[in-house]
Amino acid sequence: MLGCTIRTASLLSWALIVTVADAGVPGVTRDSIRIATIQDLSGPIAILGAPIRDGIVMRLDEENARGGVHGRRLTIAVEDSGYDPKKAVLAARRLLAGDNVFAFVGNLGTPVVMATMPLIVGAGRPHLFPFSPHQATYQPLQPLKFQIFAPYRDYMDAAVRHMVRANGYQRVCLLYQDDDYGLEVGRGVESGLGRLDMTLVERTGYKRGATDFSSQIARLRAARCDLVVLATVVRETVAAMREARKVGWPVDMLVTASGYSAQTHELGGAEVEGLYGVSVLPHPYPGTDTSRRLGEWIESYRTRYDADPNVWSAMGYQVADIFVQALRAAGPGLDVAGFVAAMEGLETSRDFLGGPGYRFSPDDHLGNRRGRLARIVDGRWRLITDYLD
Amino acid sequence: MIQYVALAAAFALSALVGGVDNAFAQAAFVGTLALAGLGLVLIVGLSGQLSLGHGAMMGLGAYAQAGLVGMGIDGLPALAAAATVGALGGLVASIPGRRLGDLGFAMSTLALALVVEEGLLRLAPLTGGAAGLVVPPLTVAGWRLASPVAQAVASLTLLGAALWLVGRLRNSRLGRAWRAGRDDEVAAAAVGIDVRHARLLAFVCGGALAGLAGGLHAHWLGFLSPEQFGLPLSFELLVLVFVGGVRSLSGALWGSIVIVSLPQAIAMLRQALPGFELGAAGLELVAFGLIVVALVIWRPGGLRPEGR
Lengths: 389, 308
Hints:
Oligomer: heterodimer
Low-confidence stretches of chain A: 1-6, 16-22
CATH class of the largest domain in chain A: Alpha Beta
Structural class of chain A: alpha/beta
């Protein structure tokens, strides 16, 4: 029954794509391709939105400097949602009808993505690589939806298994944000432990925005945990580590990719030394051990934006790069159906940013499910494993 | 009259630049926020109370609507139920008013807003929690209101009906009691008006309008998550009524136009400015703030200051 529904939805979507293609390809002219992105440039996650936008724009400009894709220049319309889905819906409608864009790339924020995605897909435009962990961004399978950001559950499962096997932990515990994010991470941790015939020894939650973790750390310490998995974001990661060290508890901690940020060691300093983290894309540090290509990229970013790039800039750059690769593969006679076919056959290789290779197929529109482990050593994240299965 | 001509011209320009769908989608959101704003005009402007949690009433209506249509109930009775849930929220919000002074009561409405947001987050089996809830398009008697035109018509029709109804209420015995209590509570009580009861009814009516607005809003957005109905929305609604004119019923409509359409106009203008095509962090927010401040200084009574 479900398969029948998916097939019907798929056929309807293709019919829509063909209709759009027959009416002329939106956003595509003989010498240009116009795309769009909806970012948060003024709301609560503007700190992510600006570097993502900069990374995307930088990659498109690089391609334009080489003459564009099949002779077409790439232009982008950037809209600021302020993390408000109402503004995002209006922006999406304006971009679909007024700007007539070809595709949306890297829209930011779950409420924004979930409110705009049906409009975008309903208008027959590709919805590519949104910055949202929501499963609906790639499931159920729909021809126009593609995602590259690994779900928390999948990569935390592998990360916890690796940590336990490598370091012999016996008592794994969880400190989690009391929302969907925390629950998803918890499921991944339990799944990983279950595959090792282990269970979580203790779990304790906190409300988003909490600053005091003394009771949670006391509870975890009383349970004699030897590894604490943190389903936290940057500030809470630092606060939890700081509290543990303050009470003289040298327990190992592992944070998700939400805590894998340069801000974590910039804010935490010596107190977050030794923290383990999961990385889906490495932070682009300048330095002697940086590859020549990455060094040039960092310098180019700095020159262009007068700021250091961070992991969000790299992610923005990467989503634009995958889009460009798919455009190339789609060939000069670009239309939506051709682009989708090219996406479904796309397999990218690992690049200078250190990301995984992304692979899409007609049956799977999630390009990556893996993360790798890193650890803060001497005030910066060092990668300690390859991508984990 | 000239204001309405300017409004029609702005709508036409918006449709020309941003597309017809965008213009009607704006109209749909203007209608729903104006409905919620009208409820707040009733509470703040007519009955003289301050509510800092009106967004939560909208949230209750939105989630009630999503839950009921999810159970297969037709959109129209579901909207009636959403308004009822909003009214119940208003009733609960007004209870501390019997014991607390003005400021204390305002703070209690703020506390209720926090409780509602937290409750929506915690009741994950019903509300979807932080993962949110997908809401299908509004369907009324088999007619699916998925297009922005249909949504705008629905919003503005209900707004028109609500404006007419609240206009009648304002001039009724209850409306006179609201205004008397607002202007002089002691004098009103001296002539036999049960001011507390009248104020409670203001919250119930205001909550019903917010619940109804929330029900529509849920469909126009298509996705609900608890943080959408947090304190920022309540403050946005307060800005809306003060910009529009807190004692004027049509002020809710004008305030809503400012809140919804002004940022859109600024965004379109920004796209046309060389050097700003790629967005400048906070530019639109700053421009919006400056215009609202200018409006408050220029028209301290709101865009539609008339009213009694």
